[in-house]
Each structure stands twice: as C-alpha cells, then as structure tokens.
Design a protein that fits this description.
By secondary structure, this protein is α/β, with parallel strands linked by helices. It folds into three domains: 51 residues, 434 Repressor (Amino-terminal Domain); 128 residues, 3-Layer(aba) Sandwich (Rossmann fold), CATH 3.40.50.2300; 145 residues, Rossmann fold (3-Layer(aba) Sandwich). 43% of the residues lie in helices and 16% in strands.
C-alpha cells in the first residue's frame, strides 16, 4: 500500500481529513491532541509508524526540566550545552522546546505537575536527581526520559555518560603510569559523582592500590573555582611536601585548574612534582597557560542528540523494556601527567644492588 493510500485509509478510520492526518505524520504543531491520538493509535495498528524514517520527528513540544543555571551559558555549562544540542536537533522540525527550571534539592512539584499535564507537551526530558519527578513523569502518559540521571525504579529510559567506567579508566591510566598514591578531588553533589567515586575505588581494587577515604579522597563543597582553591589550600596546609600524592584526579577542569594554580603559588611543579588529570567535557575550554591538562572527556552534546532520537524511538515502539543508554568517554592526552614508571624502575634496581 502506498503512502497516499495509507493516509487516505487513516483518514477514513479516524474520520479526519487527509490534510490533518498528513500534518500529524509530519510532526506539525497545528493539530489538536485528540487528532494526534487518533492518528497514532490507528497508525500503530497498521504498522505505519515502524516505516516512518528516523529523521521525521512526531512531536510538537518537548519539556526540558533542569536546574535554573542550565538555561544560561554563565551557569551550568554542561547542561546548557546539552540543551543547545537538543535545540539544534529539533530546529529543522516544527517542534517547540519548553523549559522547566527546578531546584536540584526540593523541586517545585506543583509547577512540574502543571507543566506535564499541559496537552501541548508531548515529551519530557529530566536532568535532575529526583525520584518524585520520575514517578510523576512515568504516570503522565507522556514520553519521558532522564539525561545524566537514572530512575532507580526502572520506569524511565535514561541517557548518561558512563561515569563509573570513565573514572575507572582515568584512575587506571594513572596507575599504569606508575602513580602511587592517587588523590581523587571532586564534589559529591549528585549520584553521577558517586558513580565516579565507585569507579575510582574499583580501579584501586583491581590494581591492588590501597584506598582510604581520609587519605585518598578530597571532597569539594561545590563546583566553583574559589571553593576548590580554598579546599585544596587547606589540604596542602595539612600535608608535608614529601607526603603529597603522586597524582591528583580532579572531578572537573575547574577543580584541576584550581589545583594547578595553588601548586604554582607554593612552587610545586606540574607534572614534575605532582601530576594532574581531569574528568570533564571539552566544550568551551580555554587554556589559561601552557599546561595542557590530560583529561577524560565526558560526552556532552551527544546526550542532547541521543535524547531526541530515543524519544522518537519510544514513540514508534511504545511497549518495550526501559533501558539505560551509557555513552562512552574519550581520552585526551595533554602534558599534565608524567610517566613515573622509570623512577620506580630505578628504585627497584637500586634496592636490588644494595641487597
């Protein structure tokens, strides 16, 4: 059956005009929710949705829920870039992006309920760790996914960087370069940061490296540069120079730069004295000096692109098991990490000769 005949058949089944059916299947916004529901219901029965090209999006409006700082380039740059990616993906279609600013802790549930019950909203993207939001979204009969977050009750699809594996791989890289001990300097504001901590601990276990939180974990009380500098300055004051870690794995480029700045003030050279590595994303990074920070770059804009097409896939295949899509990170090798294996080799040779 040709496309035109299917549209005609859908029009007869739904008692709508062929032009209305065509607008629904084209993702146009000038269609009532009732008409869309009729067309989608019968299109699924006829198997039409499975044959629609992946590039055609069948949504009129997407609601993005994130912290207020995510909607400004001067706030949460990571989420801001994800949102820009979503906008880039939908700009060729007749799809609107609605914004829902929520607090990370203590989100305004009443505002969220009002927005998701709006008939104009077809899909919901949630970027906040809040189990109540996930529950309400899953019961809304709307398409809903989480980004950089996970529904522990397994109701919603999620798209996230593989934080656990990224941290594991970064720590392994340092261990393979001969670094002992390694300090993890990060904030623990979100579940994603706890996953990184778990990955770091697992790498220590697999490489037979002793881990003690009081010695090998430094927690920053936020993610701003000044907070990181104060935290690390206090850390240095309580450590003799010879007791410093061989390398520091930082939870962001901001923290890594703060460490390097404090080291410079104390005459400690990177990477000659201590190596520094970062876990972050690579968009909008500005080099402030000649030191190029070795990093594991987390996917950022990729999350926005994938979220749009996961929603599209869920629309055409509504009945299936929810999944967690983990996007892999990429290594960037700069000049902030020294290979100290040669030092250890010389040490072992010297010990052997003395014996």
């Amino acid at each position: 059956m040709t496309g035109k005949l299917k549209i005609k058949q859908l029009a007869e089944l739904t008692q709508l005009s062929t032009s209305t059916v065509s607008r629904v299947l084209s993702g146009k916004s000038n269609v009532s929710p009732q008409a869309k529901e009729k067309v989608f219901t019968h299109a699924k029965l006829l198997g039409i949705l499975h044959n629609i090209p992946a590039g055609r999006l069948l949504m009129n409006s997407i609601l993005v829920c994130a912290p207020a700082k995510a909607f400004t380039p001067h706030g949460d740059r990571y989420y801001y870039e994800i949102i820009q990616s979503i906008l880039s993906e939908i700009e060729h279609y007749d799809i609107r992006l609605s914004k829902c600013s929520l607090e990370v802790n203590g989100a305004d549930i009443s505002s969220f309920i009002k927005l998701i019950n709006n008939d104009d909203i077809d899909a919901i993207i949630i970027g906040i760790d809040d189990a109540m939001l996930y529950k309400l979204a899953s019961e809304s009969n709307k398409l809903a996914i989480t980004i950089n977050a996970k529904d522990k009750e397994m109701r919603l699809d999620s798209i996230s960087p593989d934080h656990y594996s990224s941290s594991y791989s970064a720590a392994t890289y340092l261990f393979q370069k001969g670094h002992r001990p390694v300090l993890l300097f990060t904030d623990l504001r979100r579940d994603t940061m706890l996953l990184r901590l778990d990955g770091f601990k697992r790498a220590c276990l697999d490489h037979h490296v002793f881990f003690e939180e009081s010695e090998h974990l430094l927690v920053n009380k936020g993610y701003e540069a000044e907070e990181a500098k104060l935290s690390f300055e206090k850390y240095l004051q309580n450590r003799a120079r010879e007791a410093l870690p061989s390398a520091i794995l930082c939870g962001s480029n901001t923290i890594a730069q703060a460490v390097i700045d404090v080291f410079e003030q104390h005459g400690i050279q990177v990477p000659d004295d201590v190596s520094v590595m970062s876990l972050d994303f690579n968009i909008g990074i500005k080099k402030t000096n000649s030191l190029d920070i070795t990093s594991v770059y987390l996917p950022c804009r990729e999350l926005g692109r994938e979220s749009v097409y996961v929603l599209q896939s869920r629309l055409t295949r509504p009945v299936r098991t929810a999944f967690n899509l983990l996007l892999q990170s990429q290594f960037y090798i700069g000049n902030s990490v020294a290979d100290v294996n040669w030092k250890r080799k010389d040490l072992y040779q010297q010990s052997s000769n003395d014996a």
